[in-house]
Specification:
alpha/beta, five-stranded parallel β-sheet, two-stranded antiparallel ribbon, nucleotide-binding, Disease resistance protein winged helix domain-containing protein, WHD_DRP, plant defense
């Protein structure tokens, strides 16, 4: 059994036990969207404090965090060649237009990279150096 199937089975158990609610499925039957139960959300926030996780906003960034998840439409300046502050980044999502080619030279910890609908014409060769990358989404590009 593939890891994705195992993950889907586990997620289905969580949905069946009402830990996730308001599940929306895509045309293939995969879970595309859901809401986390309030108690589960509070637990996740509590646990994430101990792991030094944070959600970065445009106005706030802490260099002390080990893992950072950024999900903004046009937050390119943080990951440009000359900017080394994004080094610990594990997950990076882009949706919509990407204004310039991104160098992955300082993003060695990246595990998930998603360029959904970004209309990319070229990807920097440094993407080949992302040895921890486990998921790359180039759908609708």
């Amino acid at each position: 059994m593939e890891m994705e199937n195992v993950g889907n089975d586990i997620f289905q158990i969580l949905v069946s036990n009402s830990l996730f609610q308001d599940v929306k499925r895509d045309e293939y039957g995969y879970i595309a969207r859901c809401n986390m139960h309030d108690l589960v959300h509070d637990l996740a926030l509590s646990l994430s404090k101990h792991e030094n996780l944070c959600l970065v906003t445009v106005d706030h960034y802490s260099k002390d965090n080990l893992r950072i998840n950024i999900s903004f439409k046009k937050l390119i300046s943080m990951v440009k060649k000359e900017n080394k502050t994004a080094r610990p980044l594990h997950t990076l999502f882009f949706k919509g237009e990407v204004e310039s080619i991104i160098s992955f030279q300082y993003l060695k910890c990246l595990r998930i990279l998603k360029f959904n609908g970004c209309k990319l014409t070229k990807i920097d060769n440094s993407i080949g150096e992302l040895v921890h990358l486990r998921y790359l989404d180039l759908s609708n590009t």
